[in-house]
Write a structure and sequence with these properties.
By secondary structure, the chain is α/β, with parallel strands linked by helices. Helix content is about 45%, strand content about 10%. It has 27 helices and 18 strands. It has a seven-stranded parallel sheet with strand order 3-4-2-5-10-1-11, with helices on both faces. Strand 8 and strand 9 form a beta hairpin. The radius of gyration is 27 Å and the shape is globular. About 45% of the residues are buried. The N terminus is likely disordered.
């Protein structure tokens, strides 16, 4: 469970402050023109694709309409939406919300694109008045240190912290003396969750009345947000806030703030992220952690040791035992060693075992009424609301009240010891239609991969964006001159009953040939860890013998460090799955080849995928062609899109899955290749060294 405080964002402004900007198209035409301001003042090369996109975005913003725009790598889509978006935000006093999926893009927008816009505007007399636009990063309250809560924790450390956590509290206190932003991400190593929870701003005690914006990091950030014309956020927080009801009240237009303008970059990820946040996730760890903040029996410490009695602490013990018994019974009854199981029918029962949670909530209400300190009242209310959310959430799950949602139980953690009760909407389109496109304001979705074979209908249907305007501009890069594509015609057909054991040696043999045949580095994309690890074991010694370093996802390094080392190596081989299909930006020869081992079809046994297949079938459709193939094509396009990241990048695309040559759906994947392809077989492997890459 998460607690999202909707108390964020700009203050509502007077209706009369909002006015149109009829000259916006003229401004955009002067910016994005062969002899325009970008070319003359910043020395940028004119890109007609960028000019087309900027014009389409300006039109959508002016008309308060939705827009889906696919812009290939190199179009420069961030400037194409930032320039018209910022001009509109400043002139019309309407905040521009820009949301991305990856940290890498968020960093690019914050550290490169926004400073560029300020510099550019300041150089053009007609744009000079826009150069002072304010920008801010929007993150959850839990990321900020609250000095008031830190001081309270230090005063009450004997009651709240065991000896082994005292040093961590002191480390945070020492860091607080010098930190400028007070964000958890600045602290290295990251703070212990049990300590950070008691000092961060995610509490109703951190408010304007009790916390001075000059000293409180969250209140300072909140003021910057209120003053900002441009707000940068990620998809996860955006939909967490929207899902928690943090939208403008009543009929006031706006997705997150009154009359905001919204751009969602990396929009191909929106349906998946929204699916997660319009559902529920109730975990055994979260409940146990929340209860032990009140009182931890093993350590004899917690918030109630300060404001409650021994009897109150005993009540928390009973609630902890009730939670452990309940989730233990769920694990034993449903999982039986399996990591995920779908719940198709309401389990039934009265859940009497959870009554101690109800009793605790009632007791906390009494304790709240007994307090005179506003800070203690606020803290107790936070604890009460959190426990009540768990109690009500479990009952709601147990009764399967969310119609149109799939319900499942899941075990996570190193030993599968954390049990989750989860739900997700089977069809997320109505939620996106209501919470994005139905909010009376402009919402622009942009990505390099929204279409399949030049058509967007599949994504529009999934995103609830039917009927919206669309635009599409291909990458301006010269793929025909710089890229060669190869497709294997003899890959083992394991899906057709072939020998699954033949795949690993086949992959290893071909990866070794292609990866060592070029001078630069190779990214190899897998669809699962088992095959990836087996191939890695076969390649390790052989690559070491030829002086090539091997990086494997899940071994040795975290993702960002691995990418950094891979780029520095220059000619290494990186084997990755899931997260490495997207968000990898390694320009230059360090990534000169992308090898796709298998088409990225989603696991059809996951409860969400399974429920969606049943839903499509019930309507007389084909789950494979309406869901499985479109999703895989988008993922495939993302994967091969890792190869060319700048104008002079050169390289190879290799596909080791012959199904594209045999199956009727194969053309959709082949159409995604940016160049014509050559086929090859094991008896006649291409001489890639002769290509000079």
């Amino acid at each position: 469970m998460i607690s999202i405080n909707p108390e964020v964002g700009p203050e509502p402004f007077a209706e009369e402050a909002v006015h149109g900007f009829p000259d916006l198209p003229t401004y955009i035409a002067n910016v994005f023109h062969p002899d325009g301001w970008l070319v003359k003042e910043m020395g940028l090369e004119f890109r007609p694709q960028q000019a087309e996109m900027a014009g389409a975005v300006a039109g959508a913003l002016l008309d308060d309409e939705g827009l889906l725009f696919e812009a290939g790598t190199g179009v420069g889509k961030s400037l194409a939406y930032l320039v018209p978006g910022i001009l509109m935000a400043v002139r019309c006093k309407r905040p521009l919300v820009v949301s991305s999926h990856t940290i890498a893009l968020q960093e690019q927008i914050l550290r490169k694109d926004i400073p560029f816009c300020r510099k550019f505007f300041s150089k053009v007399p007609h744009l000079e008045s826009f150069a002072g636009f304010g920008s801010a990063l929007l993150v959850g309250k839990a990321n900020y240190l609250c000095p008031n809560r830190l001081r309270a924790a230090i005063r009450a450390k004997a009651e709240l912290f065991p000896t082994d956590e005292m040093a961590e509290l002191q480390r945070i206190a020492d860091w607080a003396e010098s930190t400028e932003k007070g964000m958890r991400q600045e602290l290295n190593p990251p703070p212990q969750p049990s300590v950070w929870t008691l000092v961060n701003a995610d509490s109703s005690t951190c408010n304007r009345k009790q916390c001075n914006p000059e000293h409180c990091h969250y209140q300072k950030a909140k003021k910057a947000i209120q003053d900002a014309d441009v707000l940068i956020v990620n998809h996860s927080l955006l939909f967490a806030l929207v899902g928690a009801g943090a939208q403008p009240a009543g009929k006031t237009p706006g997705v997150l703030f009154p009359r905001d303008l919204v751009v969602l970059d990396e929009a191909h990820r929106v349906p998946a992220v929204a699916t997660e946040h319009f559902g529920a996730n109730i975990s055994s760890y979260g409940l146990d952690f929340s209860l032990k903040l009140l009182f931890n029996p093993r350590r004899g410490r917690g918030f109630l040791t300060k404001v409650g009695s021994l009897k109150d602490c005993k009540l928390v013990e009973k609630a902890i035992e009730a939670g452990e018994y309940f989730f233990g019974d769920v694990q034993e009854t449903y999982l039986e060693g399996k990591p995920v199981i779908r719940i198709r029918e309401a389990p039934g029962g009265e859940l009497d075992v959870l009554l101690p949670l109800f009793d605790l909530v009632q007791r906390l209400k009494i304790l709240i009424d007994q307090q005179s300190s506003e800070r203690l009242i606020s803290e107790l209310k936070d604890h009460r609301d959190r426990i009540q959310e768990y109690f009500q959430g479990i009952h709601k799950f147990w009764a399967m009240e969310d119609k149109g949602h799939v319900h499942w139980v899941e075990a996570t953690g190193k030993r599968g010891s954390v049990i989750h009760l989860r739900t997700a909407p089977i069809d997320v389109a109505p939620y996106l239609r209501d919470h994005l496109f139905g909010r009376g304001t402009s919402v622009v979705m942009a990505s390099a991969t929204l279409s399949i074979s030049g058509r967007m209908e599949s994504f529009q249907k999934k995103a609830g964006a039917e009927g919206l305007s669309t635009g599409m501009q291909d990458s301006p890069f010269n793929f025909e001159a710089n890229v060669r594509a190869f497709v294997a015609e003899d890959a083992p057909d394991v899906a057709g009953g072939g020998d699954k054991g033949a795949l690993v040696p086949y992959f290893a043999r071909n990866i070794l040939h292609f990866a060592t045949g070029i001078r630069g580095g190779t990214l190899v994309l897998f669809t699962g860890y088992r095959e990836m690890d087996a191939v890695a074991d076969k390649l390790e010694g052989k690559l070491e013998a030829v002086g090539r370093q091997l990086f494997v996802q899940g071994r040795d390094y975290a993702r960002m460090e691995m990418l950094s080392r891979f780029q520095d190596a220059g000619n290494a081989i990186l084997l990755g799955t899931d997260s490495f299909w997207t968000g990898v930006d390694v320009p230059g020869p360090s990534l000169s080849q992308v090898i796709v081992t298998r088409l990225p079809f989603e696991n059809p046994t996951h409860p969400v995928a399974e429920a969606r297949q049943e839903w499509i079938s019930a309507k007389g459709g084909s789950p494979f062609f309406e869901m499985t193939v479109p999703d895989a094509v988008i993922q495939f396009r993302q994967g091969i899109g890792r190869l060319v990241r700048k104008w002079d990048d050169r390289g190879l695309l290799v596909l080791l899955d012959s199904r594209v040559l045999r199956k009727n759906y194969g053309k959709q994947f082949l159409d995604a290749l940016p160049v014509p392809y050559f086929t090859f077989a094991g008896h006649a492997l291409p001489d890639v060294a002769a290509l000079g890459i």
